[in-house]
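user: Please review this fold.
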Amino acid sequence: MKKILDIVRIPATILGGLGLIYIIYIHLNAIDYADVSGDKIPGYLTTGLFAIWATAIGVGVMRQKELKVENPDFGTKLKIFYKSLFGEAPTLVIIISVATFLYGNYYGWTYNFEGITGIIDGKMVLHNHGQIIKELTEAEFLQYEAEHIRLTTSNSMMFYGVGTGILFPRLKKIES
């Protein structure tokens, strides 16, 4: 299992990093309501999360098995948790992982869900489970669409950031 994870880990890390960059790009475009028409989050980004996290969980489990300690105290348990989560990843990668985790949680908890946008009977509306909450102007419709995209991408950003942080290998130092 370890050999398979070592082979898959590098491509998964690269794909996770590229996915994170693309999700951030989509998120930033939705901040100023730029081009929010249609489905802006491709399906392969959602599918990619499962591939990244399946590999990240495997890597974390392998690291935890390698760090097994008899009767650890609380401080040792925290060190084992940290090492099994991030291994020897560079500090910048850890900071990015933690930042995406905190931002995704903050945005998710502060988002005020009123309903989702849709077009019913030719009218732009905000609805929840088929019940129309209110009719929207085009500007309001775009604003609600952008908010929904930002919420979705903040959650994806969190998962891509932490998954990539878990998978990121320690760069070897060149000895002179």
